[in-house]
């Protein structure tokens, strides 16, 4: 069974994925794969450099994520272009990783842009993690040391929470403490396992 796990920045996707993993899921994180596809030597990295210029590379030839983020989060067309350059290779690796799992596995694929990329077509179920925007902003500021305006700008580029809720089969609310999230994960996991049995 393939379960797509999504939600806006700072919603707590990684925490929920780890909770599902501790309950027996196999977790594939597309953010991890997205980093792997640009490790030199990389055809994807070469295409990114050709498209956005040598300024997106650090002196050691690796991708300078901050420099690239400044370019793409300020320009929707450039963000779409970056996705066009990276998504096919990411998808190829995700599908290969899924293919290596036994048929009995419950595979959780963490995909921030699940709906935008159309990845839900590959999923039996979709789980959305949601949290109030003010909570998400604070989490990302604490986690990344980002300025509030930068975090809000990134949230602006993403779907509204209502959209994540409307399009998901299961919604996990992450607006309380760790214990509350564990209870939400328990409830969601029971729904996932229940639907896998039928």
How would you characterize the overall build of this protein?
This protein is α/β, with parallel strands linked by helices and 198 residues long. The radius of gyration is 17 Å and the shape is globular. The mean pLDDT is 94. It has 10 helices and 5 strands, in the order E-H-E-H-H-H-H-E-H-E-H-H-H-E-H.
What distinguishing features does this structure have?
single chain; 198 residues; alpha/beta; 5-stranded parallel beta sheet; 56% helix; 12% strand
Outline the secondary-structure elements.
Elements: E1 2-6, H1 13-22, E2 26-29, H2 30-36, H3 43-52, H4 65-72, H5 76-99, E3 107-110, H6 114-117, E4 125-130, H7 133-144, H8 148-156, H9 161-167, E5 170-173, H10 178-197
Parallel strand pairs: 1-3, 1-4, 2-3, 4-5
Helix pairs in contact: 7-8
Based on Cα principal axes, name the global outline.
globular
Q: What order do the helices and strands follow?
A: EHEHHHHEHEHHHEH
**What is the CA-CA span between the terminal residues?**
11 Å
The portion of residues forming beta strands comes to: 5-15%
Summarize the structure.
It is built from 10 helices and 5 strands. The protein has 198 residues and is of the alpha/beta class. The N and C termini lie close together (11 Å).
